[in-house]
Amino acid sequence: MGLRTTKCQLLVTSLCVMLLGLSIAILSTVTHYGLHFTVISNISLESNSYRVIHYAAFYFGICLSMTLILAALLSSAATVRESQCLTAMGFFCFALAFYGLIPAACWRYTHSTEVEDSMMDVYDFVYEEVRRNASNFRRHELTAIHEAFLCCGKHSPFGDTTNVERTTCPPGEVHDTGQYLNEVDGEATRIRLPLH
Questions:
Q1: Do residues 128 and 102 touch, judged by C-beta distance below 8 A?
Q2: pTM here?
Q3: H/E element, 47
Q4: φ, ψ (nearest 5 deg) of residue 58
Q5: pLDDT classification of 29: cutoffs 50, 70, 90
C-alpha cells in the first residue's frame, strides 16, 4: 500500500513538472510572437542587442521546457517500470534544467535593465528619424510602436513634437499623462512604456 501511494505521488509530481514545462513553452512562444515584442524586434538595428536577447530568451525557454517535459516523461516511465536507468536519466534532465537556470538567473541579475534600455534605444532612434522627416517608412514603424504600447511620443519643453505625435499617435492618446517620454535639457528622461 505504501509503495502504491509513493508511486501515485511520483506520477502526480511528474504531471506537475510536465505542466510546468508546457506552460514555459507557451509563455516563451507568446513572448516571442507577441505584438509588444515583435514590433520592437522587427525595427531594431543590427547594433542594438534587443533582437539577440529576444531570440535567446525564446530558444532558452523552449529548451528548458523540453528538458522539463523529457524529465517528467522519464520519471513517469521510471515509476511505472521501476527502472533505475530511467530514474537516473530523469534526474540527469532535472539537473540540466537546474544548472541551466543558474546562468539565466545570474544574467537577469547583472543585466536587469538591458532589455528596457535596448527597447528605448530603438524607440529613440525611430522617433528622431521621424522628427527629422528622414523616412516615411520610419513614420509607419513609429505608429506601430505607439499603437502596440498605447503610448504617445516625447514631450519636450524645448522643441515642438506635436507634429510627430499628431501623425503617429493613436486617436485620444496625444499627451496622456504618464504615456510619453520627457525630454529635459536635451536629454531624454525615460519613463517606462505601459504594457497593456
A1: no
A2: 0.74
A3: none
A4: -65, -50
A5: very high
